[in-house]
Amino acid sequence: MATIEDELERARAAQLEELSSFLRIQSISTLSSQQAEMRNAAAWLVDKLQRAGFKNAEVLETGGHPLVFASFHVGDDAPTILMYGHYDVQPVDPLELWTTPPFEPKIRDQKLYARGASDDKGPVFLHILALETLIRRGELRVNVKLCIEGEEECGSTNLPTFLEKNAERLRADVLLISDTTMVGPMQPGICYGLRGLCALQVDLKTANSDLHSGLYGGAVPNALHAMVELLASLHHPDGRVAVDGFYDEVVDLTMDERAALAELPHDDEAYRKALGLTALFGEAGYTTIERSTARPTLEINGLYGGFQGEGTKTVIPHEAHAKITCRLVNQQTPATIQEKVKKHLLEHAPIGATLTVTLQDTGNPYLGSFDAPAVELAKKSYEHAYGVQPYMTRMGGSIPIVEVFHRVLNIPVVLMGFSLMTENFHAPNEHFSLENFDRGIRALTHFYREAATALK
């Protein structure tokens, strides 16, 4: 029998064409006009999975866009791996900035350009190809379940309920996800932590209308003055959040974690220059990497009010508005942080100002094991495919559904990505490195093949 390497090499052209056919489907979950395309993408996956050897592959209804579920059972005593991904993609606007049409896949400079190539159709397809190869060779010795949703790009609205209702059906020993990024080219990384999120809208009012600054200036409160004074109270000068109790549930980094994060390739000066900044700033006592991945934050995302047009208008604004989000870590819970921030805002409202604070989106943080058996297997699989040890990383962003999977199914999660941060996901000219296409299949083939022993 040919080696896996030889088999993959011979099949490469056909595999890329098959991926391209998947990428041509305009599965944009946020557009109601694309509902038929969403179902086309789900049907495409079921057909591909059945041809790959998954006799049990089906489209399941969720109340929104459908979910694709498939399973391959080798034995009751074998470990079970649950793979999660998504087939929906982001809108393509602005269309004029694409070099080639977003749903007409093209290969340029060893990169496959198309919407969804990197996020997340490409990585999902790698899993299917790895499993297809092992099934065909009779070398898959673990049970596998695949859960591929169609609503990740619009908040996974229906997936938590689906997980709750189908927890037994999805029961597994480990969850494997490839919807994260590598550290850089030929620099794989295993993400073991994700920050959570909570959002608030702040609306401030003073008088019942805007007032003439010549007639009333100096005698009445200015809504914009009040808002900037209020927002300034949220932080200490050294960068720490000034909200009472904000850090109560934060567990500081261990020495091992700080050592692992310090190994990541990063240069503060290059980072500063690349962003066009005159200086970096953040919570004292932590490195840039630690601040941006493993510490909680409170950010003002939007501030508006008063006259916005050309020229001058001499008014005293009677209302101002701000949007706030917090990134959360460890044991912080979004609802608790929202209430603490709301309490701070109400208690610090300037004289003459009336506040309305609206609580908005939330997502729990996730912190996984640093050295679980599945993580150790992922390290070996990356090394098998890339020839280097992967970095252990935490991501500053949020993937709320990861925490939901972990909480509902009570299983370890391995975040093993193959995309690069420079691949323009969510932006024009999204692309996927063909080097990571090749090496990603090999890494995943190794993971699934060796899991029977490693996860016992």
Measured between the Cα atoms of the first and last residue, the distance is 28 Å
- Oligomeric state of this protein: single chain
Helix vs. strand class:
alpha+beta
What global shape is seen?
elongated
Number of separate strands:
18
Mean pLDDT: 96
Number of helices: 13
Q: Note poorly predicted spans.
A: none
Radius of gyration: 25 Å
What percentage of amino acids are in beta strands? 15-25%
CATH architecture heading of the largest domain: 3-Layer(aba) Sandwich
What is the total domain count?
Answer: 2
CATH topology of the largest domain: Aminopeptidase
Provide structural commentary:
The protein is built from 13 helices and 18 strands. The protein is an alpha+beta fold. The protein folds into two domains: 4-194 and 365-454, Aminopeptidase (3-Layer(aba) Sandwich); 196-250 and 296-363, Alpha-Beta Plaits. The strands form four sheets. Strands 1, 2, 3, 6, 7, 8, 15, 16 and 17 form a nine-stranded mixed β-sheet that branches. Strand 1 (56-60) and strand 2 (67-72) form a beta hairpin. The mean pLDDT is 96.
